[in-house]
Request: fold
Amino acid sequence: MKPKIAAAGLSIMEDRPAALDRLDLSFRWGRFGIRILHCHLTSFPPGRMVGFHKHSEYEFHFIPSGKGKVIIEKQEYSLEAGMFYLTGPGVLHYQEADSEVAMDELCLHVDIVELEEALGSDDQARENWGQGAEYREAELCMTGLREMPLHPAEDLHHAMDYFVFAYRAWLQNDPAFYSAYRHAVIQIMSRAVRAYKPNEAELPLPERDMGHHRYQMATQYIQDNYTDALTLESVAERIQVSGRQLQRIFRECGGLSFSEYMESIRLAHVCSHLRRTNEPIEEIALQHGYTSGNYLYYVFKKKLGLTPKQYREMK
Reply:
């Protein structure tokens, strides 16, 4: 008798349980290359056994329904729905379904290779785009895999759900399927590791310097909208801080007041326009947020020590 698959959503895989095995996919995670050898649902009819064998790769075994047993090296363990175990490189193991009850298994079989020791020559650039955090997460997971005990555990963090996640992305022809599959495999491995270390502190989440972040948001908004009649209060409202707080942020992060920064952006665009075209100065002033050519003349002379016309003649 074959029991219904108990885990939520897994019935979606029953028609083509080995569909993902036909895909030749690999990806990089941190400094590790991961090649997916198998990712499938299989069923053990009552009494079926798989004799002792071993792999040079990592194989994750999840039991969504049924029961049976596994022998890892020389130790026998009972298997029930909701459990999983890992057989790492060179680990001898034997599997057997119960004599009366079928056992389903979700299998993720991956080859993991080390690609390089460090981030590379431009470590800061990688940190800026999140790769530093990715490297640390991958390292933590791989350390956990190497240290994982050779006995089954409960799927405390619902790693099985990510088999369905990957399968559904394939079934629906998701245009971001590769990214979805990569995410699913990483989640299966990471959640398996966490099941054995429930109380271990995770890596700290990357926290922003909120002052610097708000400065970047404000300056980007100004650069995108500098021709409008922006005020300290209107920009502060856009980034959800008070005008007083935003003024302090500009002083601390940029060394200029809000109005000084606004003026510098507008003047930079005016100078570029003067160099590129012969348009009347009055028109240039209005295009770049100045109320008149006379006001632009006043600001230009005060900041740069020469008139717009003199600046244009220098090009």
Observations:
- Residues 177-196 form the longest helix (20 residues).
- The two ends are 87 Å apart (CA to CA).
- The longest strand covers residues 58-72.
